[in-house]
Automatic annotation (TrEMBL):
The keyword Ribosomal protein is assigned to this record: yes
Protein origin, superkingdom: Eukaryota
Pfam families associated with the record: Ribosomal_L34e
Family, as annotated: Belongs to the eukaryotic ribosomal protein eL34 family.
GO cellular component terms listed in the entry, alphabetical order: ribonucleoprotein complex; ribosome
Keyword list, A-Z: Ribonucleoprotein, Ribosomal protein
InterPro entries, A to Z: Ribosomal_eL34, Ribosomal_eL34_C_sf, Ribosomal_eL34_CS, Ribosomal_L34e_arc-type
Signal peptide: none
Species per Swiss-Prot/TrEMBL record: Neolentinus lepideus HHB14362 ss-1
GO MF terms, alphabetically ordered: structural constituent of ribosome
Gene Ontology biological-process annotations: translation
Name of the protein: Large ribosomal subunit protein eL34
């Protein structure tokens, strides 16, 4: 007859946060080992790809690691990937350039009206 195994936590329900595995101890007893949930990697806010250089942890574990491990040393470090950052910077530059061109054309038209 198989040995009975008792739960080590209070929750008896078979939920995703209460997964368990039967493990045999060196003393020959069978015990439950509770398995933690798998962590998903942080994603880029624009394109949704996993951010390279940032570990995949459960939310509470980010509090225990240092800031240097949670971010990447660049603008939009821990929230956007490199390609999306490049696009954002380029877009911002082009928008500013367009504003300057618009302003220059306007001043040229005003100068032409005065003549």
């Amino acid at each position: 007859m198989a040995q009975r195994v008792t739960l080590r936590k209070r929750t008896p329900y078979n939920t995703t946060s209460n997964r368990r595995r039967v493990v045999k101890t060196p003393g020959g007893k069978l015990v439950y080992h509770h398995i933690r949930k798998l962590a998903s990697a942080p994603k880029c806010g624009d394109c949704g790809t996993a951010l390279p250089g940032i570990p995949a942890l459960r939310p509470r574990q980010y509090a225990t690691i240092s800031k240097r491990q949670k971010t990447v040393n660049r603008a939009y470090g821990g929230s956007r990937c490199g390609d999306c950052t490049k696009q954002r910077i380029l877009r911002a530059f082009l928008v500013e350039e367009a504003k300057i061109v618009k302003r220059v054309i306007k001043t040229q038209q005003q100068a032409a009206k005065r003549k």
